[in-house]
Amino acid sequence: MDFRQDTDKRNQAAYAAMVKQASPNSPILLNCLKAFLVGGIICCIGQFIGQLARGPLEMDAKLAGSFTSVVMVFIGATLTGVGIYDRIGTWAGAGSAVPITGFANSMVSPAIEFNREGLILGTGAKIFTIAGPVITCGVTASLVAGIIELIRMRLGG
């Protein structure tokens, strides 16, 4: 019998027992219900904003969809900035990460975290490295395109 192989198996078994003891039991069903509830509430808020845009604000479907996305990103970013979205995420888990507000949270969080390092080397640099250049550039390009379109519409073009 190989002594080294027997020792490795005992070490693996001891480590597995230690991990099992140290790991808390997760209430899977309760966590799923929380995620479903919060994700559903976020989506219902988005649906309400979309219906508001289509109804009283009299927007067409395309504009209402864009308006809803912008408002939801604004809400997610604002709630992250004041520290509420992190508490929602801690309680709801993936239910707060999946909708569009979760993307806003992932963009704003690094900017807040590295703000103390300065606007350029802290916020400016980290928002691109952590949040991802695709999301940041997409939002920036959308903003620029929206401003150009607004100017074009105001000038009667």
Low-confidence stretches: none
**Sequence of secondary-structure elements:** HHHHHHHH
- Taking the alpha carbons of the first and last residues, their distance comes to 86 Å
Helix content: over 70%
Structural class per helix/strand content? mainly alpha
Helix count, per DSSP? 8
Percent of residues in β-strands: under 5%
Overall pLDDT: 83
Biggest beta sheet attributes:
none
Q: What can you tell me about this protein's structure?
A:
The protein is elongated and about 80 Å long. The model has no long low-confidence stretch (mean pLDDT 83). It has a domain at 28-113. The longest helix has 27 residues, at 28-54. It has helices at 3-22, 28-54, 61-81, 84-92, 94-97, 100-113, 119-130, 133-154. α2 (28-54) packs across α3 and α6 (100-113) packs antiparallel against α7. It contains 8 helices and no strands. By secondary structure, it is mainly alpha-helical.
SSE topology:
Blueprint: H1 3-22, H2 28-54, H3 61-81, H4 84-92, H5 94-97, H6 100-113, H7 119-130, H8 133-154
Brief account:
This protein has helices at about 5-20, 30-55, 60-80, 85-90, 95, 100-115, 120-130, 135-155.
